[in-house]
């Protein structure tokens, strides 16, 4: 790594100022995505970042997904992007869902830190839970049938999505736009203390999500905290733009990997269910 242009260290106060610069004040309500990694230049690390978000906003929620609870039957619905024999053999590794279960590390370190903060609540979906502060009612909107309802509730409350870092995890709000427009959903199963629970409305692949960026001119705000990018998008605008795009082009945001089982299934579903 080149150190010639290394950015200076920054901490809680700098993060708070940067959040203010993109308009986040005391009554802001946000869904936060990312970062995958916390730069070494962040003094206080993920704890400082999470505390600054909590301080800047009235409501902060983040996906607290637990892919480690997923189990598969030996046979199941067809065209569900599952290799049942292989997946069911691997299911012996699964952990059962409980509110204290660690958030999947695939979501980066922030959601687990947020979950552990005093006053934080978590919804009860055994794979797709959300966690947050000042978020009780919003998180209570979630059900097995409507896993992304908290994002809908936050959008209706005038909330924003904040995306942090260079290579953040997928913006899960776009899965809500996919479901609103009738894109193919999948079925998954989770291990819980009460047994195996079927989870409908499971989202597909997010590898093509970054293609939305070119559609967001005019609604996206960009800032920097040190070398660390911050993006703010009003959720209502994001959902309307994404849903409008999928209605216009049913393949919008599907990935380009021809072997992707999710996007291939979504394309087949589109052929069998033409819009109109
Ligand atoms: Zn894909």
SSE diagram, text form:
Layout (H helix, E strand, L loop, with lengths): L11 H10 L6 E6 L11 H12 E7 L6 E2 L12 H7 L19 H6 L5 E2 L7 E4 L2 H5 L8 H8 L3 E5 L8 H8 L5 E7 L2 E8 L18 E5 L2 E7 H14 L12 H12 L4
Helix pairs in contact: 1-2, 7-8
The site of zinc ion has 7 residues, from helix 9.
Descriptive overview:
It is a single chain. By secondary structure, the chain is α+β, with helices and mostly antiparallel strands. Helix content is 30%, strand content 19%. It has helices at 12-21, 45-56, 84-90, 110-115, 136-140, 149-156, 173-180, 235-248, 261-272; strands at 28-33, 57-63, 70-71, 121-122, 130-133, 160-164, 186-192, 195-202, 221-225, 228-234. The strands form two sheets. A seven-stranded mixed beta sheet has the order 4-5-2-1-6-10-9, sandwiched between helices. Strands 3-7-8 form a three-stranded antiparallel beta sheet. Strand 4 (121-122) and strand 5 form a beta hairpin. The longest helix has 14 residues, at 235-248. It is globular. Residues 205, 207, 255, 257, 260, 262-263 line the site of zinc ion.
Task: Sum up the structure in keywords.
30% helix; alpha+beta; 19% strand; seven-stranded mixed β-sheet; disordered N terminus; 276 residues; binds zinc ion; globular; 9 helices; three-stranded antiparallel β-sheet; 10 strands
Main β sheet profile: 7 strands, mixed
Number of strands: 10
What ligands can be seen in this structure?
Answer: zinc ion
- As laid out across the biggest beta sheet, the strand order is 4-5-2-1-6-10-9
Shape: globular
Number of helices: 9
- Distance from N terminus to C terminus (CA atoms, Å) equals 53 Å
Strand content is 15-25%
Series of secondary-structure elements, N-terminal to C-terminal? HEHEEHHEEHHEHEEEEHH
Low-confidence stretches: 1-6
Mean residue pLDDT? 94
Helical content band:
25-40%
Gyration radius over CA: 19 Å
Structural class: alpha+beta
